[in-house]
């Protein structure tokens, strides 16, 4: 069935690319945006897997989403939807067709901004934009008609405001690699971080009490926490860029920690701690406050990539000494819980959740098993004999009823694609899915030894492209 539907979809996409008249509709723009948010499961025919393991399935979703959003943008301009970025006169209030076109253009703007930041592409100077600050009242078709309905108009307004913040922060901190390097080395970024924090606090204050379903509020919180990491992670990378790898007057002796006197002893300590907190919050929400089969399974790829970025950020922070042994154990347990959820959420071995569970296991859990903390303390994990999702007590920020609706226990017979299970994703006994150093170095600007910082190879949090996950999907033997 999937093959037949995909063949029909390919023909439709070809018609869109060639500008066929029958596809020049608002519905076409809407369909492209939906398909870009939930791209089909990666297939071997869509990737370039070489005999050496290069290439793979992990980066396929973003590439497909980037292409589909680009088609939606062109189609929207072809239909002149950009003129609906302005408010009309009072006579247009009851025009349902106008509101549909405004919604299509608004979501095109949001999708374009999100995918551009994720792919590390600069915003097009004449790309989608909003000439008016729209509020919930500008989207009457999304407003609740009954008391039991969610206020999707307010949800959209909150998304718009968060997207504007995201875009402005990207332009200030990650506009170009030379500017980013200059900001880090000269220390001129603190005022931008403070302004960004102030903007995020204002957004949080405005929308913290939004009365919508628990699943909608959780998605907004995920975006908010990831944006916090996007801001504060900059300070961590800047601190690394200015910290020498060897102490003064001790040539050849490498520092065991970039924070020998503690994180808070550094000028960027507050931002670094807030970045670690934000990364943990994202992974905790995905591991404790969401049902794997009813919600996590159907999230768009960008939320999975949020978790990947958070996990790599915490891994790097722990490696450079910003996280102590106790905090490291906490990170491992948080990530293990998320991995458990991924294994249950995966509907097949090609599902993005199945692949990401293998990637995170190789980066954190198996790495910890091979390389215990320096002081010899064991890292407490539950890698073996992991049980399917079981709920934790409700989080304080959610109502009891709403939280329970997200954390209903899963059936005991739920198929799991955890990599440590003897199932489809399990590697052969002598093999492990081990991430090459390029996974971490390509994303967070370190060299092949992962001990020396290379500022000119800086790629942080998707600002200059998503992590190249493709090389991770290969099995290499353990060291004898």
Automatic annotation (TrEMBL):
Q: Which GO terms describe its molecular function?
A: DNA binding; DNA-binding transcription factor activity, RNA polymerase II-specific; zinc ion binding
Please give the CDD domains that the UniProt record associates with this protein.
fungal_TF_MHR (cd12148)
GO cellular component, as recorded: nucleus
Which InterPro entries does this one have? AAA_Catabolism_Regulators, XnlR_reg_dom
Q: Which UniProt keywords apply?
A: Nucleus
Query: Can you tell which superkingdom this protein's organism belongs to?
Result: Eukaryota
Task: List the biased-composition ranges (Low complexity).
Answer: 380-389
Name all Xylanolytic transcriptional activator regulatory domain ranges.
Answer: 65-141
Q: Does the keyword Cell inner membrane apply?
A: no
Q: Does the keyword Nucleus apply?
A: yes
GO biological process annotations for this chain's record? DNA-templated transcription
Residue ranges of the region described as Disordered? 370-402
Supply the name of the protein: Xylanolytic transcriptional activator regulatory domain-containing protein
Q: Which organism is it from?
A: Didymosphaeria variabile
């Amino acid at each position: 069935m999937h093959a037949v539907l995909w063949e029909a979809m390919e023909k439709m996409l070809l018609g869109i690319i060639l500008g066929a008249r029958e596809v020049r509709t608002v519905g076409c723009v809407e369909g492209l945006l939906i398909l870009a948010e939930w791209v089909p499961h990666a297939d071997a025919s869509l990737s370039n897997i070489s005999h050496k393991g290069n290439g793979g399935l992990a980066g396929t979703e973003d590439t497909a989403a980037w292409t589909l959003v680009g088609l939606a943008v062109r189609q929207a301009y072809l239909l002149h939807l950009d003129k609906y970025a302005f408010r009309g006169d009072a006579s247009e209030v009851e025009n349902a067709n106008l509101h549909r076109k405004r919604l299509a253009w608004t979501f095109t703007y949001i999708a374009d901004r999100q995918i551009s930041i994720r792919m590390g592409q600069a915003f097009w100077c004449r790309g989608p934009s909003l000439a008016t600050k729209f509020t919930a009242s500008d989207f009457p078709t999304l407003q609740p008609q009954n008391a039991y309905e969610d206020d999707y108009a307010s949800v959209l307004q909150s998304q718009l405001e968060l997207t504007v913040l995201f875009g402005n922060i990207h332009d200030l901190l990650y506009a170009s690699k030379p500017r980013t390097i200059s900001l880090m080395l000269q220390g001129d970024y603190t005022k931008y971080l403070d302004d960004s924090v102030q903007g995020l606090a204002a957004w949080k204050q405005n929308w913290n009490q939004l009365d919508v379903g628990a699943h909608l509020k959780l998605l907004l919180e995920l975006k908010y926490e990831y944006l916090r990491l996007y801001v504060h992670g900059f300070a961590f990378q800047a601190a690394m860029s200015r910290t020498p790898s060897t102490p003064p007057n001790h040539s050849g002796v490498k520092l065991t920690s970039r924070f020998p006197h503690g994180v808070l002893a550094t000028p960027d300590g507050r931002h670094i701690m807030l970045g670690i907190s934000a990364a943990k919050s994202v992974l905790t929400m995905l591991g404790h406050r969401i049902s794997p089969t009813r919600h996590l399974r159907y999230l768009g790829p960008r939320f999975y990539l949020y978790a990947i970025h958070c996990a790599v950020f915490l891994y790097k922070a722990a490696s450079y000494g910003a996280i102590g042994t106790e905090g490291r154990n906490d990170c491992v347990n948080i990530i293990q819980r998320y991995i458990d959820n991924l294994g249950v959420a995966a509907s097949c071995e090609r599902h993005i959740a199945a692949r990401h569970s293998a990637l995170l296991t190789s980066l954190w859990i198996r790495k910890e098993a091979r390389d215990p903390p320096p002081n010899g303390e064991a890292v407490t994990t539950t890698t073996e004999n992991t049980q399917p999702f079981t709920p934790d007590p409700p989080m304080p920020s959610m109502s009891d009823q709403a939280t329970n609706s997200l954390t209903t226990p899963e059936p005991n017979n739920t198929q799991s694609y955890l990599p440590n299970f003897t199932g489809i994703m399990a590697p052969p006994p002598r093999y492990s899915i081990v991430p090459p150093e390029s996974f971490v170095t390509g994303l967070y600007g370190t060299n092949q030894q992962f001990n020396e910082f290379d500022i000119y190879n800086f790629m942080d949090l998707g600002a200059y492209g998503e992590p190249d996950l493709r090389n991770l999907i290969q099995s290499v033997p353990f060291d004898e």
